[in-house]
Amino acid sequence: MKEADPIEYAQKAFERNIEAIRKSKKKAEFSETWRKVLAYILKAIAIFGAIAVAAGVGEKHSQIIGIAIAVAVGIDQLMSNSKNLVSFARAAATYDALENRAVRKHELSLIPVIGKVREGDQSAREDLQRLLEELISLIHTQSKKIEDALAQRRIESLVVLELENKSNDNISE
Predict the structure, then answer these.
(1) pTM of the full structure
(2) Cα–Cα distance between 12 and 25 in angstroms, integer?
(3) Which of 41, 57, 94, 116 has a C-alpha 20 to 30 A away from that of 137?
(4) Taking the CB of residue 58, how many other CB atoms lie within 10 A of it?
(5) If we measure between CA atoms, which residue out of 118, 43, 108, 102 comes closest to residue 77?
(6) Rounded to an integer, what distance in angstroms lies between the CA atom of residue 112 and that of residue 100?
(7) How confident is the model over 73-88, as a mean pLDDT?
(8) DSSP secondary structure string, 69-131?
(9) Residues 84-103: what's their mean pLDDT?
(10) How far is it, in rounded angstroms, from Cα 137 to Cα 14?
(11) Cβ contact 134:14 at 8 Å
């Protein structure tokens, strides 16, 4: 049985982590896109509805438009759409920056390692192993920060749905 090469394993782990970043970025971009579309629709209802009411449409139409505006604003607030849109946009941009940073560092750091390999320097393997470990650690640490921020945003979005009055919590104690 052939013994696994630690460099080969680390390189494949790095590639898997880069692919995981790309998948996470695509998920964040998808959420950002549909939330952006919803935000534009809701904002358009509110803006053009307000313009229609200000322009003096009939009383019956003003009431319907007013209800539509209230529903649009309510949906945005209830879903925390605007805040979540910003969170997913930040996550996508941060994943993109992380991928670029890791790939650039990998490519730039390989240049001296390749030079050492050509010269027959045995420390090249150690340098490459250290580089890959550093990059994988960077990806894990930064990805966790992004995931934690998104999880916190989801929790904050759910808090909006609470019907209990926080000031009444202390009364029962």
Answers:
(1) 0.81
(2) 20
(3) 116
(4) 8
(5) 43
(6) 20
(7) 91
(8) HHHHHHHHHHTTHHHHHHHHHHHHHHHHHHHHHHHHHHHHHHHHHHHHHHHT-THHHHHHHHH
(9) 96
(10) 10
(11) no
Structure tokens at 135: 């990059």
Distance CA 52, CA 16 (A): 53
Q: Which two tokens stand for residue 162?
A: 């609470």
Residue bearing tokens 């939330």: 35
Residue type, 166: K
Query: Half-sphere exposure (CA, 13 Å, Cβ side) for 171?
Result: 5
Q: CA distances (Å), 34 to each of 29, 42, 67, in order?
A: 9, 12, 24
Task: End-to-end CA distance of the chain: give it in Å, rounded.
Answer: 67
Residue 41: pLDDT band (50, 70, 90) is very high
Q: DSSP class of residue 164?
A: S
